[in-house]
Design goal:
Layout: H1 3-11, H2 15-18, H3 24-36, H4 48-58, H5 64-68, H6 73-81, E1 89-93, E2 108-112, E3 119-122, H7 130-140, H8 145-148, E4 161-165, E5 176-182, E6 185-193, E7 203-208, H9 233-244, E8 250-257, E9 260-267, H10 281-287
Antiparallel strand pairs: 1-4, 2-3, 2-4, 5-6, 5-8, 6-7, 8-9
Helix pairs in contact: 4-10
Length: 297
């Protein structure tokens, strides 16, 4: 979940009160209608976005909390694909005031362990505005996706701040390769770029598993320039399949740095199932790829 999603959610001020007085199902029905302009079909969901709402309600497993925790997940992933695919951690803290900057190198990244979009990239510790950073993370640590979007795995995550090694690929940034996987099978993916360029909107470009560009936009525009196929694309597909095995649907995010693959994160609810696909037929196509498990209450 990123920019335009949050902008639209803020405009739906009703939800800040509404969500505390109704069931999760009623809340999600209202949230879905506010974005799509039509009722949410939970009895016979067909589209990708409908099925994500169904999974929020009826496929709840506490162990998913470990997978969406940016620090706790590393041990799990290393056990499956090896420590060499894990971005090194420099430290983890409960409060921004506790960050031990003296222990950190000049280049590092700070992130919240429980949400998306909150990060600070540092290339020179002497120029850090620690007061601004503290304010940013105090606000970020209060974010609760389990409450705001009913993404239940986050109910099991303790909000913390993690410092990681700064990573950069040959493009001069860190392109994110995000694989949509269904029962352990990657079916399509998108590349996220321009996320760190000031004044530049993030770009999403979708591809099939032969790295052929797909005519899809979703939340962000396509890039105006062609994106080269990463050298390790086939290996990334293999890793995505390993990490996603056993889950009806999950998005596996990976990085490719000079042919070396690094794990990014598990995402069970892309855009929280709220941002429409254009053309809308892809919402239905991707929905057909999700085989819903037996309903759990």
């Amino acid at each position: 979940m990123e920019g335009s999603f949050f902008d639209k959610v803020r405009r739906n001020a009703w939800k800040h009160i509404f969500r505390h007085f109704v069931s999760d199902e009623t809340y999600l029905r209202g949230l879905y209608r506010s974005f799509f302009g039509r009722p949410l079909n939970l009895d016979h969901p067909q589209t990708y976005c409908e099925k994500l709402q169904w999974l929020k309600l009826y496929d709840r497993h506490p162990e998913y909390g470990t997978l969406v925790d940016k620090e706790a997940v590393k041990t799990h992933v290393a056990s499956l694909i090896g420590e060499e695919h894990i971005i090194p951690t420099y430290g983890v803290w409960d409060r921004p005031e506790d960050i031990d900057y003296d222990s950190l190198p000049d280049d590092f990244v700070l992130k919240a362990t429980h949400n998306s979009g909150c990060f600070v990239i540092c290339h020179d510790k002497t120029k850090l505005d620690k007061q601004r950073i503290n304010k940013k993370f105090r606000r970020a640590l209060k974010a609760d996706y389990a409450d705001t979007y009913k993404e239940y795995p986050y109910a099991y995550v303790k909000p913390r701040i993690i410092a990681e090694k700064y990573m950069e690929d040959e493009s001069g940034e860190l392109r994110d390769y995000k694989f949509f996987c269904f029962d352990g099978k990657p079916e399509l993916m998108f590349v996220a770029l321009d996320r760190q360029k000031e004044g530049e909107e993030t770009k999403f470009d979708f591809y099939d598993m032969d790295f052929r560009h797909l005519p899809i936009t979703n939340g962000h525009p396509n890039s105006p320039v062609a994106i080269p196929k990463p050298k390790s694309f086939e290996k990334m597909k293999e890793i995505a399949a390993i990490l996603s095995k056993g889950y009806p649907h999950v998005r596996i995010d990976l990085y490719d740095i000079n042919g070396q693959i690094y794990f990014g994160e598990y995402t069970f609810f892309h855009w929280s199932g709220i941002i429409p696909f254009d053309p809308s037929e892809w919402d239905l196509k991707m929905g057909s790829m999700i085989r819903l498990p037996q309903r759990e209450k």
